[in-house]
Design brief:
This protein is mainly β and 563 residues long. The protein has one domain: TonB-dependent receptor, beta-barrel domain (Maltoporin, Chain A, Beta Barrel), CATH 2.40.170. The chain contains 2 helices and 28 strands.
């Protein structure tokens, strides 16, 4: 429409212009002089022409190109890891990091000192290097003495002193170490009957034990090797005030080899060469070899093995060569939480005066020492964890022993004890049970009971071997500030046969022992701690051995310092 209007307007303009030019030409023939005048003229414009434009051809959509069809496209993304070249310029940029937790302050040394009634002096010291990946070494010192005892004051005094040093070196795949120690124990044979007429000289009843020990070992326990071993050499020496001495050199070897994930072999070996000098000189050899094969079959673990042992003892016509087969079956229906086991076997156990004088320091001179031959033993038991807080253990066994030792008052001097043996086989029924409740590091409560029913062939009684031993113990940590430890234990009565001056013998029964001990530590700082120990709070002077009453209430208080 706009194009039509433009064409019509152009036609009008051209028509007017054409008429005007014709008039000019007419005037030109008459002349345009100075005197010429423009005559009147009339111009008539007629709009009677119709302009018609031809119809334009429509050339669009002559043919149609359809749009391409939309199809699914799998777009592949390619990520290229571009690394910037390293810079040799040391940029001084401070990077903010989260502060790591510091290790707990570790004090490798502490000393304790205290005083108590009965003229008691209490000294302890422990010295050790701190955290190290190269090795460990340290030393301990101890002295606990009472200048006055439960009977006849200084005539029942006691003193125990010890010093030791140890160290081990961590090498590539190996650990090598050793220990050396010296101990001095002073006792008095105060189990005599006091009379006003007779005064006993303290020096005549004095007994002193000097103990020296040294050991060295090498093992590869810290490696992941399929074959693990631990080998050691042990030396012990004992000498007392009655010219008795004992020297023992022992070698021990422990090894295990993992065949695969479910089976393995263990081999243990012990060798001991002992020399005992008293009124006579006696040599006692000992050898034991124990190979074992273990295999796990699902929840069942089978152990098959044997022990081959030899002893040089001649007491009671001791059987010198011994062979003990060993079988054990363990069932673990709940892994790490319940174990039920049963089996049978036997063993030969080394016995030395070094050990016996620590158990009973009132031994008489010239005692006969023999290794314990535990023949056939049938046993069964279980171990269970409940909710990670309660641990239960139970065991029952029927045991047969030869040369199981007993203590009995000497016929020559009732203040001293001989070792006596049952001529035949001593049969023992043993029942053991323990329950422990452990809540974090704050509360720990335990109950332990050990019952032994002795059936002897020739001995009138199992002298000084009580049938029942039981204890209840507890530990409570109050906000890591106050630490309480307590133990209440019970030891059943036992028997001893005493020969009177007129030659007659009488059977005497010891006391049923009930003893309560309490210990408390109060931490002032991480370095300073005060402690108090109370032993035999019930105050009963009970007899563990015939004619040997124990102390009444014994209180010790002191402080400790860590550095």
């Amino acid at each position: 429409m706009k194009n039509k209007l433009k064409i019509a307007s152009l036609a009008i303009v051209l028509s007017v212009g054409y008429s005007f030019m014709n008039n000019l030409q007419a005037q030109g023939t008459t002349g345009w002089g100075e005197g010429a005048k423009l005559q009147d003229a009339e111009v008539v414009v007629e709009k009677n022409r119709v302009i018609e434009l031809p119809v334009a051809a429509r050339n669009y959509e002559k043919f149609r190109i359809p749009p391409p069809a939309v199809a699914d496209r799998n777009v592949i993304y390619r990520f290229t890891d571009y690394k910037l070249p390293s810079q040799d310029i040391n940029l001084q940029v401070k990077v903010l990091t989260i502060k790591q937790d510091e290790l707990t302050k570790l004090y490798g040394n502490y000393v304790k000192a205290g005083l108590g009634n009965y003229g008691t002096l209490y000294l302890k010291g422990y010295f050790h290097n701190k955290r190290s990946t190269e090795g460990a070494y340290g030393a301990e010192v101890s002295h606990v003495s009472s200048s006055v005892g439960p009977v006849d004051r200084g005539n029942s005094a006691v003193a125990n002193s010890a010093i030791s040093a140890h160290g081990e070196k961590y090498m590539s795949g190996l650990t090598v170490g050793g220990r050396a120690n010296y101990g001095r124990d002073v006792y008095h044979f105060y189990g005599y009957k006091q009379t006003p007429e007779v005064e006993v000289d303290k020096e005549n009843i004095r007994q002193v034990f000097n103990r020296f020990g040294a050991e060295g070992f090498i093992n590869n326990k810290t490696t992941d090797a399929p074959f693990l071993y631990n080998a050691g050499l042990d030396f012990k020496y004992l000498k007392d005030s009655y010219d008795m001495s004992e020297t023992n050199v022992a070698l021990n070897f422990r090894s295990e080899y993992g065949i695969d994930d479910v089976s393995g072999v263990k081999i243990d070996a012990d060798v001991s060469f002992l020399s005992h000098k008293d009124s006579l000189s006696v040599g006692r050899s000992f050898f034991k070899l124990s190979p074992t094969y273990e295999r796990k079959l699902g929840i069942l673990k089978v152990t098959l093995g044997a022990t081959i042992a030899h002893t040089g003892d001649t007491v009671n016509n001791a059987r010198q060569f011994n062979f003990y087969p060993r079988v054990r079956l363990g069932l673990e229906p709940i892994e790490d939480n319940l174990l039920i086991y049963a089996g049978f076997g036997g063993d030969l156990q080394r016995v030395t005066l070094y050990q016996l004088t620590q158990e009973n320091p009132f031994l008489a001179p010239n005692v006969r020492v023999a290794d314990i031959n535990k023949g056939l033993e049938l046993y069964g038991g279980f171990s269970a964890n409940i909710a990670n807080y309660v641990h239960l253990t139970g065991r029952a066994a029927i045991q047969n022993y030869r040369n199981l030792y007993f203590y009995n008052n000497s016929r020559r001097d009732s203040t001293k004890f001989d070792l006596v043996y049952d001529d035949g086989v001593t049969r023992v029924i043993n029942l053991y049970a323990e329950a422990v409740f452990n809540y974090s590091d704050e509360v720990r409560i335990g109950l332990k009971t050990d019952y032994n029913n002795y059936n002897t062939d020739n001995l009138e009684q199992p002298f000084h071997r009580p049938a029942l031993l039981s204890s209840v113990y507890a530990t409570y940590n109050f906000y890591d500030k106050i630490l309480f430890n307590t133990e209440l234990y019970y030891i059943g009565s036992s028997f001893g046969r005493v020969v009177r001056p007129d030659g007659t013998a009488v059977l005497k029964e010891t006391d049923n022992i009930v003893d309560l001990n309490v210990k408390a530590d109060y931490k002032f700082t991480n370095r300073f701690t005060a402690f108090v120990m109370a032993n035999n709070l019930l105050g009963v002077k009970y007899e563990r051995f015939v004619h040997y009453p124990n102390k009444s209430i014994n209180l010790i208080g002191g402080i400790s310092y860590s550095f």
